[in-house]
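Quick one, probably user error.
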């Protein structure tokens, strides 16, 4: 009896279930896969075009690299690397870029991506996604200012959604504790070492005074400044940011020593109390993060290698394919506006 049941079960699987599975596989093509040579035939000048535009942009506006790198992180952390950060708001929707956490992203970063997209649309229209442009632009600009080069697999599609309401809880804020930031990164699949190395992006760029004013003005009942901060550094920041409430654009470099160079000075600064944000400085003393801070402060090659790996990992986070994305004609607008 058991042998008969077994034979009937095998027959049922072969003649009924397997054909259904096979027909389903045939009728539903697999999602597009990323590859290094994705545009080799459809837009062979892609890399040359993007590099030329970015070199010109960076030379004329030196803050472009830091702004684009930050924009790339903000894009990927909210729903994946899909260029949703580039969409402009309209009468029917408030987009990601207009959430308070994204409003400080610099115009030069948006302009850099728009320039690249314009040239590519004239050269190979409708082929290269804005998501791919942003991922490659961040990589190339890092290299232009002295950082590591790493491979970017291509073939992402652009998102069909961009909502400011999706941002909260995905972007680290200055008032977050280190534990909260570690937890936020862990939720996205990063370990502590990867978090520390990605924070090294703060080796370039700047931060508005309002984001760290609590460290240099009325820090506590017993101290005007955060005692973890180098006293001379704090004094200089107090002078720089004295009128920050009136001059809302007043900012300080994240790395006061080599602000325009991508290097490991950020970690060396933390060891000397020159971290601008509370979460930055906390990494130099917290036992979970200190070993990695010390490692990257002592060995720039180790930092570059780890940073490159972490950026490759970030660049493929929740990418979209033909089933849930598109190649936009303009990076700031969906091809079809659904109201």
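Nope, works fine. Designed sequence:
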């Amino acid at each position: 009896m058991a042998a008969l049941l077994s034979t009937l079960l095998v027959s049922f699987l072969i003649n009924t279930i397997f054909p259904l599975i096979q027909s389903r596989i045939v009728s539903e093509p697999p999602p597009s896969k990323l590859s290094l040579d994705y545009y080799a035939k459809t837009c062979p000048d892609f890399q040359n075009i993007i590099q030329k535009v970015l070199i010109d942009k960076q030379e004329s506006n030196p803050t472009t690299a830091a702004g684009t790198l930050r924009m790339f992180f903000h894009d990927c952390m909210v729903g994946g690397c899909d260029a949703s950060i580039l969409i402009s708001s309209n009468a029917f929707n408030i987009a990601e870029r207009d959430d308070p956490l994204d409003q400080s992203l610099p115009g030069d970063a948006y302009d850099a991506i728009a320039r690249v997209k314009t040239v590519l649309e004239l050269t190979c229209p409708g082929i290269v996604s804005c998501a791919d442009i942003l991922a490659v632009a961040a990589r190339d600009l890092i290299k232009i200012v002295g950082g590591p080069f790493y491979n970017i697999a291509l073939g992402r599609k652009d998102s069909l959604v961009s909502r400011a309401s999706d941002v909260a809880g995905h972007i680290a804020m200055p008032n977050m504790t280190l534990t909260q930031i570690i937890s936020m990164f862990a939720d996205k699949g990063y370990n502590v070492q990867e978090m520390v190395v990605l924070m090294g992006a703060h080796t370039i760029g700047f931060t508005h005074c309002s984001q760290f004013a609590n460290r240099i003005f009325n820090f506590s009942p017993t101290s005007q400044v955060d005692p973890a901060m180098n006293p001379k550094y704090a004094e200089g920041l107090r002078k720089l940011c004295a009128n920050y409430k009136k001059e809302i654009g007043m900012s300080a470099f994240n790395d006061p020593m080599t602000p325009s160079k991508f290097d490991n000075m950020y970690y060396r600064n933390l060891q000397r109390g020159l971290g601008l944000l509370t979460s930055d400085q906390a990494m130099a003393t917290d036992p979970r993060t200190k070993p990695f801070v010390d490692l990257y402060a002592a060995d720039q090659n180790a930092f570059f290698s780890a940073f490159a790996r972490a950026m490759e990992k970030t660049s493929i986070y929740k990418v979209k394919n033909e089933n849930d994305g598109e190649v936009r004609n303009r990076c700031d607008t969906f091809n079809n506006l659904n109201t």
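The chain has 13 helices and two strands.
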